[in-house]
UniProtKB/TrEMBL annotation:
The lineage of its organism: Bacteria, Bacillati, Bacillota, Bacilli, Bacillales. InterPro entries: DUF4397 (IPR025510). Residues 57-170 form the DUF4397 domain. It comes from Anoxybacillus thermarum. This is DUF4397 domain-containing protein. It holds the Pfam family DUF4397.
Length: 246
């Protein structure tokens, strides 16, 4: 018998005893009613702890280069206010199951610029990325893997630049890490070199044409990273790469 079943059994037993003595012995009635309420409270607390233990985690990343600051709501409750381009929130616990995500221009509560239902699985971790031009916004629900094997690092690439072509991500003078990543794509994780200064090039897919270079990238052991391309190739804010840690 698990803890919750035991609390249910005790609560029912003391409720029956309290009812038996209700009109026979006031002291016994009050004694058993107190015990009944004690186990009802224990049951409620245990169920809440079980619900929280099954919760998932979400964070929000504002990656739309020409969208205004936004407020973010989950199931009608505001969780983030005035998020600006390139801002990344902390992780927040949410119960498992379906949740409606509404994104409004900051300070507004009508006509959301995005409204979408997401599924949160028990104990899973997600980044919700707002991407695209302001008139064609998308919300990507991305499953994160925040833990890396001991002594190792993991990295993946996310292409969130609306006007950039498909790209390859390569080490300067070395291997191509990710190939042909187009807008909106998030790659799988790979193992990354740790404690080394790396020079990473973003190239037009299938060519040696470098559109952006990122020197002095260093990945720490026991951590998980997402390298993200944001901004525009043809206008401001200009293309840049951010390294997000899970």
């Amino acid at each position: 018998m698990n803890e919750i079943d035991r609390y249910i059994q005790k609560a029912v037993m003391y409720d029956l005893l309290a009812r038996y003595y209700q009109y026979k012995d006031r002291d016994q009635y009050e004694k058993y009613m107190r015990k009944h309420m004690e186990y009802v409270e224990k049951l409620a607390k245990s169920r809440e702890e079980e619900r929280v233990d099954d919760a998932g985690r979400i964070r929000v990343f504002h990656a739309s280069p020409n969208a205004p600051a936004v407020d973010v709501y989950v199931n009608g409750q505001k969780i983030l206010r005035n998020m600006k381009y390139k801002q990344l929130s902390q992780y927040m616990k949410v119960p498992k199951g379906e949740h409606r995500i509404d994104v409004y221009p900051a300070g507004h509560t009508t006509s959301p610029v995005l409204s979408q239902t997401i599924q949160v699985l028990p104990k899973m971790t997600y980044t919700l990325a707002v991407i695209g031009d302001v008139h064609r916004l998308q919300l990507l629900s991305i499953l994160d893997e925040p833990y890396a094997p001991y002594g190792k690092a993991k990295v993946r690439f996310a292409h969130f630049s609306p006007d950039a072509p498909a790209v390859d991500i390569a080490l300067r003078g070395g291997d191509v890490l990710f190939q042909n990543a187009s807008f909106g794509k998030v790659t799988n994780y790979i193992e990354a070199p740790v404690n080394e200064k790396l020079h990473v090039d973003v190239r037009v897919a299938g060519t040696n044409q470098v559109v952006l270079s990122i020197p002095n990238v260093r990945f720490q052991p026991n951590k998980s990273y997402t390298v993200v391309a944001v901004g525009y190739v043809s206008r401001t804010p200009s293309l840049e790469v951010l390294v997000l840690e899970s």
